[in-house]
């Protein structure tokens, strides 16, 4: 491990990117628990200062995949499931991806969510915490596969499916900064999905990740310039939406105002606790249109409509908006949420 630390920690002028084979050896030592805590911390901090290369990110992603348990899904579900990879650091703003995924599931589009307890540097509210407040039992791979098969919705706690995450948590908390793991953990692909949706803060980061996806198993990757670097677009500003397919990358700007869904940024509620997140999700899925949930309601409609369009469920975003609005009015998403809750009492 020392030889790889020396290469990436030589300082601004001397540090170099590791080639894939070198990075894979370093990643394997870290993920498999062969490196000491001091060596792991030194390597991760040096990488943070140097910034990881696409080859290094790929190496860590594939090392984590090697130690991850995969969901046992039928061919039909596996070919259609969407992997929604939100930040494991958690969020301070509304987790629109949860109600949006529930609405997708109601229309028969399998949606898979995953996270851990919140991590540094943000320590926001995690999707795991919010789902627990909503009454969703957090089980392992078998439970997530079961609800995906039956209800087209599933969630898994990453640390239950990939033991290196548990081993590395204390080190990550001790150093307290973003590392290569913050991106790699979102790409483990527990569901074996062909399609991934994730977020990024900056367009430069998206461009940098592009080469990685050409060597992973995804057929389509959708990356949005989402709120807090998540897969959720805000509705107080426009957002870039990128599609990576067959090695090519294309993009467009999504403007909520064009769909009558713009909201003033002052209406953006944060930070939101897990309990408050759950309350707002239930309110939106119940069809509530009060001022208290106006931003969140518009955000759920916008993100659901975007997903319907990207996943070819409808030909235009406008039609996706109409579908999502109708689902909320008819409380269709609330019915699916209740079915998801009830699925754990019929074990």
From TrEMBL:
What keywords sit in the KW lines?
Amino-acid biosynthesis, Aromatic amino acid biosynthesis, Glycosyltransferase, Transferase, Tryptophan biosynthesis
User: Where is each Glycosyl transferase family domain found?
Assistant: 96-329
Q: Name one GO cellular component term.
A: cytosol
List the Pfam families hit by this protein, alphabetically.
Glycos_trans_3N (PF02885), Glycos_transf_3 (PF00591)
Gene Ontology biological process terms from the UniProt entry: L-tryptophan biosynthetic process
Q: From what superkingdom does this record's organism come?
A: Bacteria
Q: Which GO terms describe its molecular function?
A: anthranilate phosphoribosyltransferase activity
Q: Taking every annotated instance into account, which residue ranges of this chain make up the domain Glycosyl transferase family 3 N-terminal?
A: 3-68
* Name used for this protein in its record: Glycosyl transferase
Which source organism does the UniProt entry give? Bacillus sonorensis L12
């Amino acid at each position: 491990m020392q030889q790889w630390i020396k290469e990436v920690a030589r300082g601004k002028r001397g540090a170099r990117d590791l080639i894939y084979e070198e990075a894979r050896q370093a990643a394997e030592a870290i993920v498999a628990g062969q490196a000491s805590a001091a060596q792991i911390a030194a390597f991760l901090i040096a990488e943070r200062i140097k910034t990881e290369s696409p080859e290094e990110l790929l190496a860590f992603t594939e090392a984590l995949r090697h130690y991850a348990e995969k969901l046992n899904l039928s061919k039909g579900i596996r070919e259609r499931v969407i992997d929604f990879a939100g930040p494991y650091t958690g969020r301070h703003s509304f987790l629109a991806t949860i109600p949006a995924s529930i609405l997708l599931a109601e229309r028969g589009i399998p949606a898979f969510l995953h996270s851990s307890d919140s991590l540094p540097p943000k320590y926001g509210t995690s999707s795991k915490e919010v789902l627990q407040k909503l009454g969703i039992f957090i089980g392992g791979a078998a439970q997530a596969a079961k609800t995906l098969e039956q209800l087209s919705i599933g969630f898994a706690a990453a640390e239950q499916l990939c033991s290196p995450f548990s081993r590395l948590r204390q080190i990550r908390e001790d150093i307290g900064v973003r590392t290569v793991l913050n991106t790699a953990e979102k790409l483990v692909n527990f569901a074996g999905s062909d399609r991934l949706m994730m977020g990024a803060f900056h367009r430069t980061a998206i461009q940098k990740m592009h080469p990685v996806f050409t060597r992973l198993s995804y057929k389509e990757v959708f990356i949005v310039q989402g709120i807090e670097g998540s897969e959720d677009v805000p509705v107080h500003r426009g957002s870039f939406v990128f599609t990576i397919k067959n090695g090519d990358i294309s993009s467009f700007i999504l403007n909520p105002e064009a769909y009558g869904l713009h909201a003033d940024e002052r209406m953006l509620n944060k930070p939101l606790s897990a309990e408050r997140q759950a309350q707002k999700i239930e309110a939106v899925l119940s069809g509530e249109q009060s001022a208290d949930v106006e931003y969140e309601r518009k955000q759920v409609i916008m993100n659901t409509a975007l997903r319907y369009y990207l996943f070819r469920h409808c030909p235009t975003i406008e039609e996706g908006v109409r579908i999502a609005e109708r689902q909320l009015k008819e409380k269709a998403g609330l019915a699916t949420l209740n079915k998801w809750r009830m699925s754990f009492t019929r074990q």
